From TrEMBL:
Keywords: DNA-binding. This is MerR family transcriptional regulator. It comes from Bifidobacterium pseudolongum. Residues 14-82 form the HTH merR-type domain. GO terms for molecular function: DNA binding; DNA-binding transcription factor activity.
Length: 260
């Protein structure tokens, strides 16, 4: 039976909080929190257990969308219960904000790709007559990342650089296994993995803010996503969520993080 058929069967009756959590990929704790904030209004059965209707499920999906768009709880409540004109106004504001954010991410991606391309061409870059080396040096020569990378190249030999690469690849396999094991973003185990991932980026110092910017690239750039998802389907998104949750413990808002 197809997933759509199963879903349609589920939607023909009211769902328990556990069934709703599984269907909507929202934790039971979050459903209860949204209810306490006045965003959800499930009915109760004779024993006092929550029941969610088809309209409730649709509302949950709208809440998830608006939360992903960065709306506050008050804004989400206004959109859900307010007039259509208010919804349109907020959506226009969010579209403008997202467009600006995409532009910023594209600029960050361009810079990261250029520096990464330089790093992956180590043999050719040793010859300063190489046109790409000259171009990269002109662009990055005064940047902190370039200076840190140059120091890394100076203090490590080819064997150490290969060992660092091997360690990163081994960690990626460990990340994939953690995802398969059900490790949740924000958990102690996930936070430890996020810190180890940051430490594995040995070319230059990566701050928490820079780390979550990289995590966004893993999701938004098709090449990064293809790399991680080739290791384990869904790994790019999971790793992004793990990193975003960890940097939050260091006071970094993933939504507004900047490349430093």
């Amino acid at each position: 039976m197809s997933g759509r058929s199963v879903q349609n069967m589920q939607m023909q009756k009211q769902l328990t909080i556990g069934e709703t959590s599984a269907l909507c990929a929202v934790s039971v704790r979050m459903l209860r929190h949204w209810e306490s904030m006045g965003l959800l209004h499930p009915t109760r059965d004779s024993n006092g257990y929550r029941l969610y209707s088809e309209d409730d499920i649709a509302r949950i999906r709208r809440i998830r969308l608006y939360r992903d768009l960065g709306l506050t709880t008050d804004q989400i409540r206004a959109v859900l219960d307010g007039p259509a004109t208010e919804t349109l106004s907020l959506m226009r504001e969010q579209r403008t904000r997202i467009s600006e954010h995409i532009t910023q991410l594209q600029l960050i991606l361009q810079d990261i790709n250029e520096l990464s391309a330089y790093a992956h061409n180590t043999k050719e870059d040793e010859n300063m007559d190489n046109p790409y080396a000259n171009e990269a040096h002109d662009r990055w020569g005064d940047s902190p990342q370039w200076m840190e990378y140059a120091e890394y190249r100076t203090r490590t030999d080819d064997a150490q650089q290969q060992a660092d690469l091997d360690a990163m690849q081994a960690l990626e396999l460990e990340l994939a296994q953690a995802m398969r094991d059900g490790v949740k973003p924000g958990s102690e185990a996930a936070n430890e993995l996020a810190l180890r991932h940051r430490e594995s980026l040995t070319w230059y110092h990566v701050t928490p803010s820079m780390h979550v910017c990289l995590a966004k690239m893993y999701v938004n750039d098709s090449r990064f996503r293809a790399h991680y998802d080739s290791i384990e389907p869904g790994l790019a998104t999971w790793l992004h969520d793990v990193i975003a949750a960890q940097v939050a413990t260091e006071g970094v808002d993933a939504e507004h993080a900047r490349w430093e």
